[in-house]
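User: Can you predict the 3D structure for this chain?
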Amino acid sequence: MKVQISVLVASAMLIASFQNCSRVSFEAIPVESASVSSLANTGYEEFKSEKLSSTKDYALDMVWVVDNSGSMTAEANHVRNNVENFIKSLSVKSDFKFMLISKQGSIGLATQIPAALVSDRVLQVNTLIGSTNGPDILLNTLRAKSSFFRPDSKKLIVFVTDDNSTLSSGDFTANLFKVSTFNAENTSVFSFIGLGPQISPCQAKTGQVYQDLAATLQGKTYNICEADWTQHFADLQQSAILTISIQRIFQLSQASVLSIDAVTVNNLKLKESEYTISADRRSISLANDVVLIENSTIGVSYSF
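Assistant: Here is the predicted structure, written as structure tokens:
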């Protein structure tokens, strides 16, 4: 009889312990034989690139950062000689806003926007830019004037310097994307820089940080030591218009993508450097130098 009572008491205690859920914890037991790859499904989606009806309807915001250090006299003159026509041309072809960060002036190391062009859409921040601190000053300026840039715009940053940055490309982008409206999908970096002593004999240092930024943020670099920048400005203008004239961002229908396995344009596989994936893995953005025309076929293979 005592044994039966003991069994009943023990059973009651065991039942009570399960009923008191706040005191019970469970440890997940991993299934060693399973892996993410073996459990994942694969998907494929296909898109047609569309030519936008009018670039004038699409927002393009551009900011230039021009080095004012002692070796930049010729380069400042190149900017002064080209910036007016550059602004006028892009203003006609797009919904355009322009900011210039540089020491203001019409001679020597300074440069400026012609007074007739200055407005609420075209402005200059009169700041002395050193040979290596352009990216730092840009970040500080963007924080102070973030409202100048529109949330729905394509953003192009242009650096002009014959030196290298003390801020790494990784640190720059990490801080840039903390500024509202800037992200990896809508921002490109172009630079007029030294490309090495053999290619750019006038350089102070090779602009390695700016080359890295161009590679990771869908941009280009131009040889700062060229005697005539006319073609550079023309190419930059064309690249700017291409970023808004042909659809380059494609939204996936699958909500739980684990990885992007391949991206193709007209059945040609792109390099990983030629596209970026949004943070939520729901959209693909093709780099500016990927050639697209109207009705190009874009294929995206992924795991989910």
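Residues 1-37 have pLDDT under 50 and may be disordered. Helices lie at 2-19, 36-39, 73-93, 134-144, 169-176, 208-216, 230-245.
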